[in-house]
Write a structure and sequence with these properties.
Two copies of one chain form a homodimer.
Chain A: E1 3-8, H1 16-31, E2 35-40, H2 46-57, H3 63-87, E3 92-95, E4 102-104, E5 113-116, H4 119-126, E6 130-134, E7 137-139, E8 145-147, H5 152-163, E9 168-173, E10 194-196, H6 197-202, H7 204-207, H8 213-222, E11 226-230, E12 238-241, E13 254-258, E14 261-270, H9 275-285, E15 293-295, E16 302-310, H10 314-329, E17 333-337, E18 340-346, H11 356-366, E19 373-377, E20 380-386, H12 390-400
Chain lengths: 406, 406
């Protein structure tokens, strides 16, 4: 008997039949004697449909009204899920974010949860009801409806689990858990039984398909044990939790790849203090997130500097910044390269096992794959290489660290 | 400069283009310096779509969850209407029923408004914002979402007009106002400029197409001046208000017809005290609304009794009650007749003008139309006649009281 929070995404509740499937699973957990709080997203497709309507009445909708509009999607899902449970003979009650006591700040469309007052949920749990809460939404203390932005339903689930001191927060999704690598690239990739918050955060590019960093950080901060599992198959998923000692026995947890980055190189930059600062100032003014930065040794007082950014930001840099970068930072030439990929090897075991970097470089060198940029953290080594080499590099590293099979 | 409440039905906001039309009209009233509170219904079709989803997850949905589900329809409309106004450069803010301070009892799916706390609306009006309120919904003092049942958005508008002491409550619909008769039956039927609450209530069968009795009664109780007008054409509609002296100058306000009633006749009933009581007790146990009741003079200690009920109730009477009526009430025979219609002549002028009944009967007799039942109130004469004669009777009476033309 445990207190559990479960979260089902839009695909899991995307049709009446799927809602009934979800309801059956919830009922079975409830029948086992667990206290159940369930967070659901809007049925898949609804949000886009509503945004389409909004776009037809105005080009530039106010964010308050967009929140008012979008919040209806989750409200519909919770009502339907509660009805489905009733139909199965399981007591249930649905709540909007506001009714569930989720208070946020007033930043519409990407509000932050400030406080949760779960009195009403506690009372319903005491009455042995399954509590269904609308994900992705809350209300301000002026009683306006807010939404939490991308990945908001995960955040609702994690925050409720923290506020309710739940034993476990299960995130149901369309994958079975976190894998040692993308199974589409590495056929013998293995589902990871458990992983630490920090590793999960470092695997963000891989993990993003499963959960957003924001929710993982929140879970880490409040010590909420997460399980990512499949809403289609009833098999154990991946537990994400505080690092435990035995986790260090595994040197490498997984290998991820990110093909959505681009590399920008400034050639022949005067090697003087303040040049890099001027550059990254310009980028941050445009709210461009820079990932890796490499500057090579100086030659004749001139340096070459490379950095990676999300591909979608390239246009901004070309159109709005290229001229200013040449003039204000002083680079003689700029190169843009989209044909790259970032491959990362992640594991907290790195801290206590030496030679991981050397082994990584050697494995790739043996295969004739060139490394263009390197960046390391305590528990991660990231490499930028040619896009065409990326999948092969993932397979080589996955094999090199014996991550495959059972 | 006035304080106005406007209500737009589901058809008026049935598409993005229509929402934009409504927004233009609202903006123009706002630009004239009026304080504007606007109640909107769900976009036409949405409610049925949501009920369809509910039917697919359970056969017997809980009314609390149905309210939770359906309330999203109006929430979407208010958000889209506010956005459309923003797009036109008109300040506006949308509220759910709960945010607007509409408190109801806990009878889900047909809640009654208990109290309105319009502080937030008043504040927004003071800021010169147009306030858009979701119709049809409210919340209980336990913070559950309720809906008000059929005609609920009209009721929201009337109740807000009362709470805000509005100068006028305009009900926008797809007709231009209240007519002296149905224009499809009487080609020269005329739009009525103003009508008293009581006349409007007596014309319910005609008026129901425009507004439900419940909202008219509410308006009467709180002295809210109503105007029913077209959302398509910008022309004055019909004002519904407290009776004024000059209203009595017009003897007859209009002629209505109701083709949805049926007549039930009990033959050879013992003419003893308590028989009628027993009959209507049985009917009220089944929540059957009886309209007209006629009992003829007794002959040989046996009476014949006829009453009219909505046609949809006939099945209940045949299947559940016929046997008990024969046994417990003692009628020898029961006749069911759906081929009837009720024609009513309504006007507060009747009170001060004699001869209306005589003139009514004579006009029909001259045309060879037989009257089967008669029932009168202070301001109405209702007649039951053959269904096939109904339209002709309406035309004759309309002409007889000179209601046509301008």
């Amino acid at each position: 008997m445990a207190r559990m929070v479960q979260k089902y995404g839009g695909t899991s509740v995307g049709s009446p039949e799927r809602i009934l499937n979800v309801a059956r699973r919830i009922k079975s957990c409830h029948d086992d004697g667990n206290e159940m709080v369930v967070v659901v997203s809007a049925m898949s497709g609804i949000t886009d449909q509503l945004l389409g309507l909004a776009a037809q009445v105005t080009e530039n909708p106010s964010e308050r009204e967009i929140d008012m509009l979008l919040a209806t999607g989750e409200q519909q899902s919770v009502a339907l899920t509660a009805m489905a449970l009733h139909g199965l003979g399981c007591p249930a009650i649905s709540f909007t974010g506001a009714q569930a006591g989720i208070e946020t700040d007033g930043v519409h469309s990407k509000a932050r949860i400030r406080n949760i007052t779960p009195d009403r949920i506690e009372k319903s749990l005491k009455d042995r009801q399954v509590v269904i809460v609308a994900g992705f939404q809350g209300r301000t203390n002026e009683d306006n409806i807010t939404t939490l932005g991308r990945g908001g339903s995960d955040l609702t689930a994690v925050a409720l689990a923290a506020a309710l001191k739940a034993d476990l927060c299960q995130i149901y999704t369309d994958v079975e858990g976190v894998y040692t690598a993308d199974p589409r690239i590495v056929p013998d990739a293995r589902k990871v039984d458990s992983i630490s918050f920090d590793e999960m955060l470092e695997l963000a590019s891989m993990g993003a398909k499963v959960m957003q960093s924001r929710s993982i950080e929140f879970a880490k901060k409040f010590g909420v044990v997460l399980e990512v599992r499949s809403s289609l198959k009833d098999v154990p998923g991946t537990i994400i939790k505080e690092e435990t000692e035995d986790m260090e026995d595994v040197v490498i947890r997984g290998v991820s790849v990110d093909k959505n980055e681009a590399k920008v190189t400034l050639l022949r930059l005067p090697d003087e203090p303040g040049r890099a600062a001027a550059l990254f100032n310009l980028l941050s003014e445009q709210a461009i997130n820079v990932d890796m930065i490499i500057q090579n040794v100086s030659e004749n007082g001139l340096a070459n500097l490379s950095f990676t950014v999300p591909q979608v930001e390239l246009g901004k840099i070309r159109n709005r910044l290229a001229k200013r970068i040449r003039e204000e930072v002083g680079a003689e030439e700029m190169l843009f390269d989209q044909e790259i990929a970032k491959v990362s090897v992640v594991g907290i075991g790195m801290r206590s096992h030496s030679g991981v970097a050397a082994s990584t470089f050697k494995a790739l060198a043996d295969a004739g794959i060139n490394i263009e940029m390197i960046s390391t953290s305590e528990i991660k080594i990231s490499l930028v290489l040619r896009l065409k080499d990326a999948d092969e590099a993932v397979r080589i590293l996955h094999a090199n660290f014996n991550l495959g099979g059972q």
